[in-house]
Amino acid sequence: MNDFGVQFQPVPRKGPIPRNVVGLIGGYYGENPTFVLSLNGVEMVIQAPTDPVGFPSVSEFDRDHPFYEWLVTERSKKIYAHYLEIVQALLGSFKFGETNWAYLVHGSKRNRDSGGYEIVTKPRWLPKVTCPPWAPLIHESEVEFTVYGVAGDRRGIWKGKEVDITYGWNEDWVKRLDTAMQGHKFLEGMDLTFEVYGHLINSKGTIIGIVTEAGWGRMATLGDRARIYQAISRVQRRGALYRACLTNRFMIANGKVRLLDPSAIEVFPPDKRNELERLAEYWHWDELDRLFHEIQTIGPFGDYRAPFARFTASYKDLECLPLPPSPEKPLGGIMLYPNFFKSFYVDPWPEYQQQESEGSGVVAKTRTRSREPLYIDDDLLIQASWAEDEDRPVSCARIQSRARHRIAFHPYRQRQKRDNFIAGSDATSVSSFEERPPRYAIGVI
């Protein structure tokens, strides 16, 4: 059985970031590393250059190396950790609330302690959702965010209720918010989603999120096969695809199917129904066949179908960045807070390795085994489809051609030849709780 150590968490009643302390609540690593910070409920996005000064360029790597992609990823993670220490050193150089966006720029002669970097604030205007609102408007000050799965996928408390929030903090998440609103609207009245409480707005009245009942229940099992096929058949008959079947975006709450990712709904007009039926052969029935085969042969999470981060995140996963002492040089930055590296491993910095090799005169010089960092098996790393690039899930297309088994659950038996499609969903997998209200959710064994 494969659960790869996942433990589901209840929704806390209070936020995890202490007063007057900056929290790292999300971001990206890779191209244009990005940090989403929060201080006393005020958020700021800091974007850094792709290539920092002093780091080898990606062009220096051998593209024919069998682990080329892994080497590039490791480089990106080291750069992210390097930039994060610089950002922490510069936290006192700007004020939260003046703007929504800032840039880490190199070339400053004033900030030698930060390697010549400085933070330049500049407003960034994000696109607006196109879907008209249909639910009550909820001001963001009314919601206390208590869980940050990623910056755009949150949980919190609103009027004493536990809620899930899709939050549009950048262009990608505004688009996802827009499609999520359209998906919720399409599914309205079908009893296939958790209740929509309202649209989240900021001080300017702009819609920046959608607030729903916090997801609860349990994850799908083989015994839920018929009810899930029936639910997807209803969606298809109504004129839409649900592109989140293989990624297992389902929950079962009080015996009812809940679709966890309305942003994966794609609506087809009446004159495109033939196209819908053609695509549904892959996106619905082939993917469901594979999903339940994985559940049966591998375990409840299938082939590394990781849950939404909001269901498993806790305060232990959030990195706090206390303001560095001033005007003295920062005392090591995030290196003083090693919990960041429990899930974000990078090689030890040279000074650490030197200190380890020197040892201590107090400790007896007995021979011990050399200590090496534990690395994930390379073959497993390459095969895994659950890896995430911080806030942006990595799209993995590893669907192999195979003949679909005609099973009794398939509602539309078609004999004509079908085209093959490649999965491109950027979603990962589902959540699972005991079938009771979410405050008492427990982990899956």
From TrEMBL:
Q: Which domain of life is it from?
A: Eukaryota
Full protein name: Uncharacterized protein
What species is given as this protein's source?
Agrocybe chaxingu
